Each structure stands twice: as C-alpha cells, then as structure tokens.
Amino acid sequence: MAHGPARAPDVRTADVVLVSDRGPVTFRSTPSGPVPERRSGSVTSLLDRSARALREEVCWLAPSTSEEDRRAVREGRFDGLGLGYGFRPVPCRAEDYRRYYEDAGVRGLWYALHDLWDDLPRDPGPGVFRDGAALRSYQKVNRAVAAAAAARCHPRTVVCFQDYQFGTAPGFLRARLPTQTVGFFMHAAFAAPAALAVLPRVVRGLLLRGMLAADVLGFQSERWADSFLRLSEEAGHEVDRRAGVVRHGCRRTLVRRYPAPPDQEYLSGVFGTRDADRWSGTFRRLRQGARLLVRVDRLDPAKNVLRGFEAFALLLADHPELRRRVRFVACLTPSRAGVPEYAWYAARVRDAVAGIQRDHPGVLTVYWEEDRVRAMAALREYDVLLVNSVHDGMNLVAQEGVLVNRRDGAVVLSALTGSAERLRAGAVVVHDPRDVRETASALRRALAMPPHERAGRSHRMRAPLLATSPEGWLRAQLADLVAVRDGTEP
To answer: In the chain, what is the straight-line distance between the N-terminal and C-terminal CA atoms, in Å?
Structure first.
C-alpha cells in the first residue's frame, strides 16, 4: 500500500480538507511586517461560509505564489486568525501558477467546459498545450495541492477538491493514499463532449482519469452531470445514468448534483448600510418612471455580455418607443485582464456600449469597476434582470436578484445556466443565448409583463431558494462522502 509523505511537526490532520484555487486570506507586506487581507470571489465566499458552519475540524488549502504568505507560515501567522477553521497556502512558483491558471486553466479547460470556441478570435485550446509547458505546470500545481492534502489526512478524513483547476488532483491523491475518501466539485459548467473534443487527446484523458479518481463527483445541475456521464460513456466506461454511477476498472464513481445557493446571510447584511441606500436612491432616480433593466456580470466571454448589448440595441431599433420607457444599468467587473482573449472581448463590449450610448443618449449607464454593494442595490431595484450566459455552472447573480429584488422584477434567463433548473418556473427563458433576436424578444416580453404576472413569477422563483444555505450545500457533499467512506450507499 502506498503511504503519504512524512508530515512536518506543525502539520495537523483534519476531518475535512478543502482545496480551492483561491484561499480566504493572503498576507501583504507592510513596513511592520506581513498583515492578513481577506480575499473575495464567489467560490471563496461560498466555501468560507460553509467551512465556518461545520463542526468538524477543517483545513482549507490553496496555491500561493506570495513570499509574504511563505513568511507568514514560517512565523505562525496563519494560526489564530479567527477564521473558524484552519487555512494554509501551498507554495508554487509564479510562472507555474500563471501557466496552470491562465493557460491550461482559462485558455484551455475553461473555454472547453463553457464551449466558447465560437466566441473567441482564435482557437487557443490546442495551442496552449502544444509545447507541453502549460500542461506540466497544471500538473505541478495539482500534484502539490494533492501532496499537501495527503499530509493532512488521517484514515477517516474526507478531501473535497473544488473546481476545474484541480481536475487531475484526485488522481495524484489517490496514488498517495489509495483508500482515502475523495470528492471533487465542479463549480463551472460542463459542456457537451464535443466541446472538450477540441482539446488534445492527452489532456482529455488526464482530466477524465483525474476526475474519476474521486469517489463522488458533484456538479451544479443535471445538465452538467449528464454531460460528464456522456463523456465517460464515450470513453468506454460502464455508465448507469439513472443511478449516476460510472464504473471504471475495479472502482466506481458516484455522479451527483449539488446546486450552489446564494448566501442569504450576506445579502441581508448588505442592505441598511448607507452605501446601499445611496445607490438604491441613485437607481430609483435614474428610472424616471421608466422600466429599469439591469445586468450584473464579470467581463467573461461565458457571460455573453456582448450579445446582451447587441440584443438591447436590436430591441431599440425594432421598438423606438422603448427609448423613452427603458433605462439599462450594467454593473460590469473586469476579469482576467492578462488573458489576451479576455482583453479582446472587453474591447468589443466597450465598443458596443459606446455605439448604444452614441445612438441612444441617456438610455444606457455602465459601471466598469467592481462594487458589490452597488451591484446588490441594482439587483434590488430592477424591473427586468438579464442573465444570458453562453454556459454557466450556476450563476448566483440570478438567484441573488430574485431574493433581494423588491419590485417583483422579471428575469430573462439563459437555459444554459445551472440556475435555470431552480428558476425556470418563473423566468423568461432564452433557449439559445447565442441567438440575439431570441434574447431581444425575451427582453421585450419581460418589459411588457403586467404586474400580476410578474408577482406570480417572482414568487415561484423565490420559493425554492428560501430553504437553501451554503452550509447545507457543503454538508450534502460531505454526507455522501461519509456514506462512501463508511460503506453505505448515499
């Protein structure tokens, strides 16, 4: 039997080991020494809230290129931070991390998982893996986090790898600790096998074998789980779709759905603050008796922001009377500016915005910086919310909007978001988010929706969200992993 690496004296085991790309805290340098700084992000926030609620001893791991983090570890500064759980960074070389995250991760796996090949100026998928450097760095980081996780395991520890950045890490952990209980949750979408077929065969094989090394695989929706089952079937594995089981060699992997919820505790804490009330007042004045159309998104090709603006321009061209009846507010957050395709996409979005503002002065207001409070205030005030992602693992913005909105606002929602499974009963669904005319038609329908219909739809969307919580989301994963560990069927 294989054994894990020898543990350093200060490495303690944990009941639950979480691994994500971004940790909750990093240290920055100051004249008086390293000081802790909280990190944001949807996955980070979800895991932070979930980990704090667990009674088990938790250790959270994340890769880090920061010398300040290394120094803080040596000086014991990560102890006593009051997080409610343990956290340790896993040191990585900066160039390895860049290739792992930007090249192999974003320009390879992210584009494939979201089927973005038709939305980019060139086909980066095979290219980024051509010389092998990106794949080697991806594997280095995955191997490093797997080794760090193994060092913190006792026999009954369950390990949860979070998201596509660690697609091969379960395999590295399995090689070190063959009987350890391992889970993997995919926050991103998982497009049809044809989208992954663009990637080199060796990359597809490593990803599939790495994921199948987990005992339990989690996805945001039935659509993404089914896509993985089809990929496994095409690879020659025995698949039971009804039971959600893939049999491979002498092992089996359970495939399950754990839809991520909005953080209602955080949402309730935003409102009542001076900034939130100020921004709500700004948006009410901006409405000026018109209908307020809102979108809140990262500038990511997967979010399909460009086609959203194109659909709005088409709507105004087809219905000139709406120029006086609609105000569009977009809160857009820069994303992955160092990735060439993202910079290209952001420039195209800015050109589309400039065209609408030139042709229809006063109709469109865009905020280009991240401001979470401002975004939440916009969600509180919308009459129509636009979420037209090409593919989206979940899209929590849609759910947050439903929960915080106080105008019984309508939601125009892509069918290719995980949130569509929860919100379909009340949303105006766009079946093909690449179809600009279909999106424009959905916007027209939502803007014209009478109050009683909006109220009924809003209630149907809100009801299934009220019983959800981040801690319930993680506990569902852990319950299935514990059942596997203890030899009972989840």
So the answer is: 27
Residues 6 or more apart from 268 whose CB is under 8 A from it?
none
Please check whether residue 324 is in contact with residue 357, taking contact to mean a CB–CB distance below 8 angstroms: no
Q: How many CB atoms lie within 10 A of CB 412?
A: 27
Alpha helices in 253-395 (DSSP H): 264-270, 274-287, 305-318, 340-359, 372-381
Cα–Cα distance measured from residue 453 to residue 405, given in angstroms and rounded to the nearest whole number = 16
Q: Which residue has the tokens 């947050």?
A: 400
Record the pTM.
0.94
Mean pLDDT value of segment 37-55: 91
pLDDT digits (tens, 9 = 90+) for 466-477: 999 999 999 999
- Separation CA 358–CA 420 (nearest Å): 34
Q: Which amino acid is at 249?
A: G
Q: Residue 385's beta-bridge partner residues?
A: 294, 411
**Facing residues of 25 across strands?**
38
For the chain, domains (ranges, CATH) are: 14-260+472-485 (3.40.50.2000), 264-465 (3.40.50.2000)
- What is the spatial distance between Cα 392 and Cα 190, in angstroms, rounded to a whole number? 9
Please tell me the total number of residues recorded for the chain in this structure: 490
- Find where tokens 């093909």 sit: 432
Which residue is associated with the tokens 């709500």?
A: 280
For residue 365, what are the contacts with CB-CB under 8 A and spacing of at least 6?
286, 327, 328, 329, 330
Give residue 8's pLDDT band: very low, low, confident or very high (50, 70, 90): very low
Give the pLDDT confidence score for residue 126 in this predicted structure: 66
CA-CA distance, 178 to 2, in Å (whole number)?
Answer: 7
Q: Distance (Å, rounded) from C-alpha 408 to C-alpha 413?
A: 15
Q: How far is Cα 479 from Cα 467, in angstroms, rounded to an integer?
A: 18
By C-alpha distance, which of 160, 212, 150 is closest to 187?
160
Phi-psi region of 362 (alpha: psi -120 to 50; beta: other; left: phi over 0): left
| Structural tokens at position 432 | 């093909």
* CA–CA gap between residue 387 and residue 300 (Å, rounded): 13
For the cut 90, the answer to whether the pLDDT of residue 451 exceeds it is: yes
Q: Token match 């004296």: residue? A: 9
Q: Which residue has the tokens 């319950």?
A: 479
